[in-house]
Structures are given as structure tokens and as C-alpha cells.
UniProtKB/TrEMBL annotation:
Domain of life: Eukaryota
Gene3D superfamilies on file: Peptidyl-tRNA hydrolase (3.40.50.1470)
Origin organism lineage: Eukaryota, Fungi, Fungi incertae sedis, Mucoromycota, Mortierellomycotina
Keyword RNA-binding set for record: yes
Name the UniProt record assigns to this protein: Uncharacterized protein
SUPFAM superfamilies registered for this protein in UniProt: Peptidyl-tRNA hydrolase-like (SSF53178)
GO molecular function: peptidyl-tRNA hydrolase activity; tRNA binding
Species this protein is from: Mortierella polycephala
Pfam families in alphabetical order: Pept_tRNA_hydro
Alphabetized UniProt keyword annotations: Hydrolase, RNA-binding, tRNA-binding
């Protein structure tokens, strides 16, 4: 995933997609609260904030001018000896409700992507789906991420 730039370039070439503004990259983000969605477009390399996969895409394409749906996974718990790679590559736990938060986030992100594809209005989509800076409440207890995602409006 950290070296995804060449794969994205090959896909864009295959589909004869020359405008990076039509590219939507969905990835995890440790700088966004768990369960929250951040939506960005453009910016400089610094705006990618160390997300290696996005940096690889930007470097390969020669631009950061693509749309990013950043799924908040947060950082390792305070006092934990876990490194960032261990955190993002490790299994979701139940103790900190990581699995419940990610389940919520999958449905939320799917709905945001659908809304954006239908309206082509990134500003409206960002306003509608990224207004919360708090960890969501009323989460569904999730035993597994192998589950259906509810999509409204299809």
C-alpha cells in the first residue's frame, strides 16, 4: 500500500484517465479521529501528512490534485509501546471499540462516496459528511468486519 503510485498510474492509463481531479483515493489516516471521515482535494505534499500510499501516488502522478477520503483510525493509545506501523497494520480490537468505529466509518464513507458520485459536489459532500470532530456515539457492537454495509439512496 505504501508503494501504490505505480498501480494507480497503470489503472489511470488503462482507463485513459488523464485528469487526476477525477481520482478518488480512500485510505486510513492516523491524524483523523477514529470513526471520523476527512475529505480533501489538492494541497501540497505536506497536506498528505505522512500517509505513504498517498505520497507515492502524488509523487508518481506529479500532483496532489486528487480527491482523498481519509478514514480516521487514530493513533495508538497513550502509553502504548505500539509503533504506528503496528497500529495501522494490526487487527482491530474490541477494548477501545476500534472495530465498532471502523464498522460505522465504512457505512459513513460508503454513503459519502455515493453522495459525491451522484452530486459531483465535493464541497457539499464535505459539509454533509465531515462536520463531526467527535468520536461517534451509539455505535453498533461489531464482532467481525465481514458484514453488510447499509447504503441508502441507491
Amino acid at each position: 500500500m505504501n508503494e501504490s503510485g505505480m498501480a494507480v498510474k497503470k489503472i489511470m492509463d488503462f482507463y485513459q484517465m488523464s485528469d487526476p481531479k477525477k481520482l478518488i483515493v480512500v485510505s486510513d489516516d492516523i491524524n483523523t479521529l477514529p470513526g471520523a471521515l476527512a475529505i480533501q482535494d489538492g494541497g501540497d505534499l505536506k497536506s498528505l501528512a505522512g500517509q505513504k500510499g498517498q505520497e507515492s501516488i502524488a509523487t508518481t502522478l506529479g500532483t496532489t490534485n486528487f480527491i482523498r477520503f481519509r478514514l480516521g483510525v487514530g493513533k495508538p493509545p497513550t502509553g502504548s509501546s505500539m509503533t504506528i506501523p503496528q497500529w495501522v497494520l494490526g487487527p482491530f480490537g474490541q477494548e477501545g471499540k476500534e472495530m465498532d468505529l471502523f464498522y460505522y466509518l465504512m457505512g459513513h464513507t460508503t454513503q459519502a462516496l455515493l453522495d459525491f458520485v451522484q452530486t459531483n459536489d465535493l464541497k457539499l459532500c464535505r459539509k454533509k459528511f465531515t462536520k463531526s470532530k467527535k468520536i461517534p456515539s451509539g455505535l453498533v457492537a461489531t464482532e467481525s468486519l465481514v458484514c453488510p454495509v447499509q447504503i441508502e439512496g441507491i
